[in-house]
Amino acid sequence: MHVTVLLQEAVAALVVKPGGIYVDGTFGRGGHSRLILSRLNEAGRLIAFDKDPDAISAGEAIKDPRFCIKHGSFLQMPSMLRAMAVSRIDGVLLDLGVSSPQLEEASRGFSFRFTGPLDMRMDTSQGLTAAEWLASVTETDLARVIRDYGEERFARQIARKIVEERMRQPIVTTSALAEIVASVVRSREHQRENKQHPATRTFQAIRVHLNRELEELSLTLPQCPDLLNLGGRLVAISFHSLEDRMVKRFMRTAADADVLPRGLPLREKEVRRLSRQKLKLIGRAVRPEKQEIIINARARSAVMRVAERISTGED
Length: 315
Ligand SMILES: C[S@@+](CC[C@H](N)C(=O)[O-])C[C@H]1O[C@@H](n2cnc3c(N)ncnc32)[C@H](O)[C@@H]1O
Fold this sequence. Notes:
Layout (H helix, E strand, L loop, with lengths): L6 H8 L6 E4 L6 H9 L5 E6 L2 H8 L6 E5 L5 H7 L5 E7 L4 H5 L25 H7 L2 H12 L4 H14 L5 H12 L2 H6 L6 H11 L2 H8 L3 H4 E11 L2 H14 L13 H8 L3 E3 L8 H6 L7 E7 L6
Parallel strand pairs: 1-2, 1-4, 2-3, 4-5
Antiparallel strand pairs: 5-7, 6-7
S-adenosylmethionine binds next to helix 2 and strand 2.
């Protein structure tokens, strides 16, 4: 089971045209997709993507002529849409990160809470598993990943310990990795400051790196404005600060008319064309209500941001 975060809020922000074409870039178990479908009329269409073969199987169970699902990264959205002869869409939703079935299925190896093989791939049909990567990565690269994607201040010490331990025996289970990390991070200072499991940041970092999460997001966001019809919406839900920072910066820059000197005698339309402003921000960042967090703890770190495609004067 995956309990969808910001379900009503995201779909309300996204579906502004019942007859429009929408993309759910992160199908998961289809919580958002099903509600989007319920808001569309017979002319509407929904195209979903996910990297995870299990998500694809779940999506294929939806028998609705207005819906289809593609196996792949949302990074491939422009080429996949072209292949389907879809030139513009009316909205795209990115509900980032991992789903509950990924986290809670021990065999997927995403979580230190369950003992399982150290896999962590969203797309189990390709790429290195976490165990394979940990067996070959250099200590310097490992420390960089843990520091940059986990914002972990003990990154260097954790990387050194992992490299030491893998010489004794390969690190192939979630619990082995969690214990190694905990043996470094389990300082009194850490416990006083932080109620998180000591391996939380390291697991997040390795997962983000292996699945190229930030890289794919940073390459996908700039492609969205040109895919959207005027009035079309980009809705992104992030679950950690690095992701949210990227979404926030992208939307602010794409919505920024301030790249031109102030006071030029230009009409609004001309400012947009010259500044290449393609989006406008819709509202502020939205966070789940307390009630939602009580029911679904995963919602506590969610932040949703919305932007709308506007005319650049050249459309
Ligand atoms: C938070 S879940 C989405 C849950 C979904 N909104 C629901 O209501 O069921 C994130 C999903 O996005 C997928 N995913 C993450 N990054 C992706 C990417 N770059 N391309 C395609 N799918 C991705 C994951 O495999 C996971 O199934």
